[in-house]
Amino acid sequence: MRLSQKSYILIALCSAGPVYHEYCECPEEDSQTWQNILSCPSHEPQVTKDFTSFPTINLQRMLHEVPTRFGQTRGAIVHYTVLNNHIYRRSLGKYTDFKMFSDEMLLSLARKVHLPDVEFYLNVGDWPMEHRTANDTPGPIPIISWCGSVDSRDLVLPTYDITHSTLETLRGVTNDLLSIQGNTGPFWHNKTELAFFRGRDSREERLQLVQLSKENPELLDAGITGYFFFQDKEKELGKAQLMGFFDFFKYKYQVNVDGTVAAYRFPYLMLGDSLVLKQTSQYYEYFYSELKPWKHYVPIKRSLDDLLEKIKWAKVNDEEARKIAKEGQLVARELLQPHRLYCYYYKVFQNYAKHQASQPEIRDGMELVPQPDDSTSVCNCHRKKPLREDL
């Protein structure tokens, strides 16, 4: 049986205690109570791993070093302070427009639970930034980013794309992580038995994928929908028409290849019921450590040398391929639920606060990021109501 999109939204958002409109400012003062209500995991493997590089966070050192190392003209750093559950920030560098995504998530989280006082630097660009190791002098500093890599030390948060999609879910917009689950195309035995890819030319291996498709159309349907990095290749490889994402799942096998960094489509592909063939990558998102190759997806070499072999394996071993696809979908449904994302954000800030060596401050040039006016919503926060005297 397939549940509807609305059913999944209800499952995701139902919890013990009152339920408020997304714009209702009604934070739970007791963070442990809030975490218990959401059934937050006691342990997040990626958070634990990230903070091993930072037994102590020296805010004064960061205050002097970050602007010169990362906040120059072409920088994409936003300096945040959370104090008394209010959000303050200043931008360092020219390319910080994506702070609108971090702003909206921080504000949303602060409406739900009282945040610890923290002062941090968020990289709103694509690439992780801190490549020093613990053995270097000076050592690494804790930049928070939306993507990690095997050769960087950034603290990883959910990507702006997953974050925005989650907030859109709570605002009732249909094109989100949850809507994928109600639009996964035909049942397995009715899907087209081809591997499928559509995307931009943001990595050379994607061009190789299209060439493989031209040479092996009985196994693979791959196309580039927009050329920016390799415009000289368009005439040779051709340009594919844009295709609705839900239509991807008409195909049994989905090829996930990196873009500039980790492909942000990967969580969406995992939520479908096609088998995901994932390129081995130096980049990762916050939930990758919970996934196991050959249990949740089929790994392929970074060079794509074994892609055709893996597609043939899936065709021959149809039932095993179906089981891997199902296991991947189930774990993705658990990891990518809205409440898990909020739990993860809070766990990062909770750990960050424990490692801070001094108190956060509102620095020169910072401005308050205001909460939206909750008068536009039905907001009957029981924590704001005065106690009624018994008659």
TrEMBL record:
GO terms for molecular function: glucosyltransferase activity; ligase activity. GO terms for cellular component: endomembrane system. Keywords: Ligase, Signal. Residues 1-21 form the signal peptide. InterPro entries: CAP10 (IPR006598), O-Glucosyltr/Glycosyltrsf_90 (IPR051091). Residues 114-359 form the Glycosyl transferase CAP10 domain. This is Alanine--tRNA ligase, mitochondrial. It comes from Platysternon megacephalum.
